[in-house]
Write a structure and sequence with these properties.
Structural class of chain B: alpha/beta
Oligomer: heterodimer
Helix content of chain B: 25-40%
Number of domains of chain A: 1
CATH superfamily of the largest domain in chain B: P-loop containing nucleotide triphosphate hydrolases
Helix content of chain A: over 70%
CATH topology of the largest domain in chain B: Rossmann fold
Number of strands of chain A: 0
Shape of chain B: elongated
Strand content of chain B: 25-35%
Largest sheet of chain A: none
Number of helices of chain B: 10
CATH class of the largest domain in chain B: Alpha Beta
């Protein structure tokens, strides 16, 4: 496939997802309602508990990360989920494109939504609770967002794989999976407070390292030696595994006939 | 349906497919049990058969949506498993129960798939406009898919299936659930695709009239096997259904009529005596001459060939 055909296929998915996102009330709730409710409720809880500004920033970073990863990951899952809902999935697998076009196109839209959401929540957190996400500078914010988006891509592609493996029954993973990842990655607490087995799992999650690296700019001692490099390294490994899993599941769906069943 | 390999659009040999379902109590369904079919380039071929016969499964294998368990299938000279990506550029498919993303508008749906097939800019716009015009969708180009009627959805599916100007088009029950007038127009479009673009078309249908009107060849599938294949006329002859000579006689039909030379069976219904004969052209003069000689008045005569539907009933039995 030429780079032009690659770019066009990715662009087709970008346009499709963007159009769908702009016309559904559900997407509005995903992008605005739940994230705003999340930051406000968690922020107010920190006030009630009398946390220090540093502790508040620690918790709010986790809340913002949860929203950004969630929105971007859902968009990646929409690469197949929307077509499963519409029973039109066979048409996109009949076209001469690869799964990379579907996931990258959806991921690009997810990143745009993620940046928009991050900006909105940053303003809200500053206005309501005096937490300045850019206090650490643009570089750390960019690395943090890259980490969030890489993790969103990995979780989203695994969700796509599960949907093409189990069909509609796996839909719940789209909403549940990211929460499980974030609980283990230390969303509101350092991973050192986790029980040893859970802490071991946390060390295998890339987002753990990106959260750690970003929080280090707010006065918290880093728990890892080279968190960004480790996070990036793990992300590359998981991204490759997720892609392979999705590809294998699509091939399996072509063998079992699930691809057709999901289109009937 | 036997042609040199180079001129074949489809060359399927002993294609078999079994579906397995259930994790704890696995069940198996043999959908195809060794289907062999050749389709020449530029032909319209119909796959006929009762529900669950394996028509859609076979079509899906040829369209690379399913991987066969056994056998081989070459489509446009390419292997459906090994060369699936290259093959997908050159074929397309529309089904009788079309579904697309509910919020996308008609023009956006066609454009989305156009981009997936590598079209862009003015070429894409021109292709979308042409297809929308051809399928009389211009008034609906900005209407969301969820608000379209069944007939309009069907036309969107057909427009989408032509967006890459395919060499081979699969149509899975293309007129299912359509009003008769819309069905007539869809059939006219299908015939025009072959006539004007030389496209090879393979369609599944339950409507015998559709198959008889459109198809050069038909193949009957039942329980995952092709029972017979050929032109509609060949099949009628091969099944031995014969021609029907319907006579209105006075005073009554003589008893010898049922056992006359070439008569396969004779029935009387509503004043008409229907004699199924091996060849009407050969038997009619003899029958009329003998009736006249015996003083039987022939008030009316009609001759008709058996319909494909009768072949279907015979084979599906």
């Amino acid at each position: 496939m030429s780079w032009r055909a690659d770019a066009l296929a990715v662009w087709a998915v970008v346009v499709r997802n963007a159009l769908m996102a702009s016309r559904n009330v559900f997407f509005f709730f995903e992008l605005l309602f739940w994230p705003i409710v999340g930051v406000l409720s968690i922020g107010l809880m920190t006030r009630f508990l009398g946390l220090t500004p540093a502790q508040t920033s620690f918790v709010l970073i986790g809340t913002i990360a949860l929203s950004v990863v969630n929105v971007c990951q859902l968009e990646v899952a929409y690469a197949v989920l929307m077509d499963v809902w519409a029973k039109s999935i066979k048409h996109q697998f009949l076209a001469p494109i690869g799964i990379r076009h579907l996931t990258i196109g959806s991921w690009l839209v997810g990143m745009v939504r993620g940046v928009a959401l991050f900006t909105l929540l940053a303003v809200l957190a500053w206005w309501a609770f005096g937490f300045r996400v850019f206090a650490a500078g643009g570089g750390p914010v960019a690395v943090f967002l890259i980490g969030c988006f890489l993790n969103a891509w990995i979780v989203g592609v695994f969700v796509c794989a599960l949907i093409t493996l189990f069909g509609n029954r796996a839909e719940a993973f789209a909403w549940a999976s990211v929460n499980l990842v974030l609980v283990l990655a230390g969303i509101y607490y350092p991973v050192s407070v986790l029980p040893p087995p859970a802490a071991a799992i946390a060390r295998a999650i890339p987002l753990t390292y990106f959260l750690d690296a970003y929080r280090a700019h707010f006065g918290f001692t880093s728990e890892f030696a080279a968190p960004i490099a480790t996070g990036l390294g793990l992300s590359v490994v998981y991204a490759a595994l997720a892609h392979l899993a999705f590809y294998s599941c699509v091939q399996r769906a072509r063998r079992t006939g699930l691809l057709l069943k999901m289109s009937e | 349906m036997s042609s040199p390999a180079a001129s074949l659009a489809i060359d399927a040999r002993e294609v078999a497919k079994t579906f397995r379902s259930g994790w704890f109590r696995p069940r198996t369904t043999e959908a195809l049990r060794g289907v062999t079919l050749e389709v020449p380039r530029g032909a319209i071929v119909g796959l006929l058969g009762p529900n669950g016969a394996g028509k859609t499964t076979f079509l899906s294998i040829l369209a690379t949506l399913l991987i066969p368990d056994r056998g081989s299938a070459r489509v446009l000279g390419l292997d459906v498993v090994r060369d699936s990506l290259a093959l997908r550029r050159r074929l397309n498919m529309a089904s009788g129960r079309p579904s697309f993303l509910w919020s996308l508008r008609v023009a956006e749906i066609v454009a989305f798939y156009g981009r997936l097939y590598g079209l862009s800019g003015s070429v894409l716009r021109a292709r979308v406009d042409r297809l929308i015009e051809e399928y009389e969708l211009t008034p609906y180009r900005r209407v969301p898919y969820s608000e379209l009627s069944t007939g309009l959805k069907q036309r969107v599916a057909l427009a989408k299936s032509l967006v890459n100007d395919p060499e081979l088009l699969f149509l899975d029950e293309p007129t299912l659930g359509l009003d008769p007038d819309v069905s007539v127009r869809v059939r006219a479009h299908i015939a025009a695709l072959r006539r004007e673009r030389g496209m090879t078309i393979v369609l599944t249908t339950h409507y015998m009239r559709e198959a008889e009107e459109l198809c050069d060849d038909v193949a009957f599938i039942k329980a995952g096997r092709i029972l017979d294949a050929g032109t509609p006329d060949e099949l009628k002859r091969r099944i031995g259904l014969g021609d029907v000579i319907a006579l209105r006689l006075e005073p009554t039909a003589p008893a010898w009529l049922a056992t006359a030379a070439g008569v396969l069976r004779c029935t009387t219904n509503d004043g008409w005596t229907e004699c199924t004969v091996d060849e009407a052209e050969k038997r009619l003069p003899d029958l009329l001459g003998r009736l006249q000689a015996e003083g039987v008045t022939v008030r009316n005569v009609r001759v008709r060939e058996p319909e494909l539907e009768e072949v279907f009933v015979e084979l599906a039995r």
